[in-house]
């Protein structure tokens, strides 16, 4: 029973009746955190025996992953894909990671066709909770769908908070606080003992009728600050714990001490360390509270046992592979059909498969791909937008992504002063999984910009992580950092070790970059014949895969 929600329930019942009679409906439930939007969606789904329901919850960590929301929402409908006419079928196969042969230019109409096919036999109710975290491309596609539902047997119901301009044209139902009477009734129904009437009235007044706040107080639970400064329910179970950790990681440098709070709560839960989820969360908690060496064993176990078909874990397991330099499990989880597009695209990129990565990204290119291609204007536009979005949504990780991408761009172009500035900004906060990448760029930028003390400090920070990791990726990365910023007498040996250790079949781009740096080092010592071998090899790789910035840099070295 939902107290005080008769009006809202009646509207949802009308929506179901309309869809049953062939009148498609769109509705946005808008209200603050804890106002009861999810409970109303539960009511809707429970009252829909007339058809099927597909439901997803948009997650903050996936807000920057193109089409992640659509993938989750439409996964139960993929059995209808063969009934969708071309070219829409190819578009959907590409968006859902089932094929690399199609573009993504007409995703909205393609999704509308899929929903229509799925609803041909009986009505279909599509539900998206926390729609304010829906990734942009999924939002654009669903906004198109929303405009096409007036005729048909499909309902699209979304719930979220705050301003959401993309849904401004959609019918909206405001979810406000409970009346004083209903708030008092809800509180009384959950209390297990007598409470002073004055205290009860104060709680009701201060809650402003927010059901979550009332339930939280009645349980006597301590709250944790979310990355947005709002009070949320404590983390009582595995799913909530994953969401809390994910939100705090995404908030990053703009989240205050939210990550430490979430990590401390995670540790207190004493999750089973033998399960992938338990070891993953334990590893992140160690990483936050105790440092990298303490985190490595748990993270290593987590990524080795993670199920690549478990979307709840994948978004955290893949960055964990970066944190512990585990390229084998990174590619096991990400380089496969059905993996989220941006996770798969990162693996393709480092393997030098730029064409496949570009096909997956479609009309929404990834910053790292744009950076490696040397597209300065496009990349700087993307990073400016990322930083604005990061500030608007308190998503500090976007600042780290922007700084890292700019460092790659400028290192590729040979503007190492600009690369140093970008890499320092990226590395000033240790974003989970991203910090290692930023430090590697910082070592190169600082060493070649004439700042050996900055390069040495970044190299030392890397060494604290690469040693405990012990993989060829980690040790090859450290060898390259030592060659750039360590003792000069050891440089050649360390360059050679880096080229030998880095896995060329999975991290071919990094191998080519190491050969470029080694060739540069050889040329400056007058060993022109040896330098030419390394530089030509690097130039050939960069040219073949389309890394235009680095190809140009290698060509300039060859001309000298």
Account of the 3D structure:
With 560 residues, the chain is mostly helical. It has 28 helices and 7 strands. Strands 2-3-4-1-5 form a 5-stranded parallel sheet, with helices on both faces. The protein has a two-stranded antiparallel ribbon with strand order 6-7. β3, α6 and β4 form a beta-alpha-beta unit. The longest helix is centred in the C-terminal third of the chain and has 18 residues.
**Alpha carbon gyration radius:** 26 Å
What is the makeup of the main sheet?
5 strands, parallel
Number of helices: 28
Across the major sheet, the strand order is: 2-3-4-1-5
Compact description:
Helices cover 61% and strands 6% of the residues. By secondary structure, the protein is mainly alpha-helical. Strands 2-3-4-1-5 form a five-stranded parallel beta sheet, sandwiched between helices.
